[in-house]
Design a protein that fits this description.
Blueprint: H1 7-20, H2 23-29, E1 31-32, H3 33-37, H4 43-46, H5 54-73, H6 79-97, E2 103-104, H7 108-122, H8 127-150, H9 167-192, H10 195-199
Antiparallel strand pairs: 1-2
Helix pairs in contact: 1-5, 5-7, 6-7, 6-9, 7-8, 7-9, 8-9
Length: 209
């Protein structure tokens, strides 16, 4: 398989690292409910790139980088659209449904979107990837249910009482991945007029035989 440069992944992760090095940018970009309600709507989008500790940054960027690299290296379509749409849908959902959430930051919702998208796309790949994709989707579902039930983190604790899990963030990330995945399949099916071609949309190109 031809190696592809994970451009989208590098842009997203690099932006998070650059913002982490600038307290001024963090203050300007973090999701801040009072500021958003006063008209600073960009924070709905940019807040995802702000992190509250080095551990928070490393964990979120690592998950996103791994999932993003796997998506781009296998040539799955519309990952860029996923990275544009997921922060918007997550941000708007948090504003509408979590009125007590004053500040929010982190790529974990986008990371969940990327992992979910990879797992869904893998369902159209060869059997070993299909099996792994099914396992990952079940883990994501279980993780999300646990977070809603307990209000805590599953895989990582940041040792800071001010950093709390926001389950809606992860749920909306997963739902965005579903929207992009099924829209891509439907569009391909309509365009190609063939189930065979549409199911190949997520199959890696230039794969060796």
């Amino acid at each position: 398989m031809k190696t592809r440069l994970p451009v989208v992944t590098l842009v997203v992760v690099s932006a998070a690292v650059i913002i982490a090095a600038s307290p001024a940018l963090q203050a300007m970009l973090v999701y801040d409910r009072p500021a958003i309600l006063q008209g600073e709507f960009w924070r709905l989008f940019t807040g995802h790139w702000v992190h509250f500790s080095t551990k928070h940054l490393v964990y979120d960027t690592s998950v996103f980088a791994i999932a993003g690299w796997m998506i781009e290296s296998r040539g799955y379509k519309n990952f860029g659209w996923l990275c544009l749409l997921s922060p918007v849908l997550i941000g708007v959902s948090l504003l509408l449904f979590t009125p007590n959430l004053i500040q929010f930051g982190g790529l974990s919702g986008m990371g969940t979107a990327a992992v979910t998208y990879w797992a869904l796309a893998s369902l159209d790949a060869e059997s070993r990837w299909r099996r792994l994709g099914m396992i990952v989707l079940r883990l994501i579902a279980g993780k999300t249910i646990f977070e809603f039930a307990s209000g805590g983190f599953v895989f990582m604790h940041f040792g800071d009482s001010q950093i709390n899990s926001v389950p809606l963030n992860h749920l909306m990330g997963a739902l965005t991945a579903c929207i992009i995945y099924f829209t891509t399949k439907f569009t391909a099916r309509v365009t190609a007029g063939s189930d065979q071609v549409s199911s190949a949309v997520f199959s890696p190109a230039d794969s060796s035989k």
